[in-house]
Amino acid sequence: MINRRERRVHRDSKNFSDLYRDLHSLENAGCCGVSDKNVYHRPMHRRIFHGLMSIFLIGGSSGLADEVSHSVNPSEGWKLAVETKDVAIYSRPHTDSRLKEFRAIGAIDAPTCAVHAVIDDFEGYPRFMPYTVECRLIKRESDSIVGYQRLSPRIFEDRDYTLRVWKKSWPVADGLVYLDRWAPANDLGPAEKKGVVRVKICDGGWLLEPDGAIKTRATYSVYTDSGGMIPAFIANRASQTGISKLFAAVRKQVKNPKYALRAGL
Length: 265
Prior knowledge:
This protein has about 260 residues and is α+β, with helices and mostly antiparallel strands. Helix content is about 20%, strand content about 30%. The relative contact order is 0.25.
């Protein structure tokens, strides 16, 4: 038996790879098409804190980015791990690993194009993501970017990695749907550094869907392995806690008017 939330998030579910393939011929639109621009700037009373989750929210080698969607169907192994008023976090076991896959679904009080502008502000992460000390855009292509990131948490060694992030968007009735999915690309980034743990496996994705003209239903999926000697139970717990803080960080940052301007609102 699926509860109401699970039925809601499961409706019209379609995996990321199918969406990406089916919509490959569509061109990206340039704005959200939101008519009520003033409502977007109303306050969102949430605090931002984003720390150790920066380590644990980088993924694993499961091919997760090819299968994530907003579905949390129990028949696929998903179980509700924690639910707050802001986000519902689901988990499931991963084959041959003690680390879990996570999928989180939450509402954000801003249009999808503004939320995506925050996520796309890769080089700005050191200004609003704690422990992020370096983000470098290596190259931008027509459908993807390649970026290097280094994190400096207080109680672990620094971590770094290079990712390729594929980006796609398409129009729907209330604006744009955005699909970001990523995979490791360390061969395109800087060489490994002494004293910095190189994260060599990494998969995940964001799906941003309009929930009316001025709200977003955001789905974040990740399978986590941060490298080093961190026990699985700590990594799993950190992922679960960190996802909530990730959503809080995006909610906080998106109220900055510059993201509405970038999105063309």
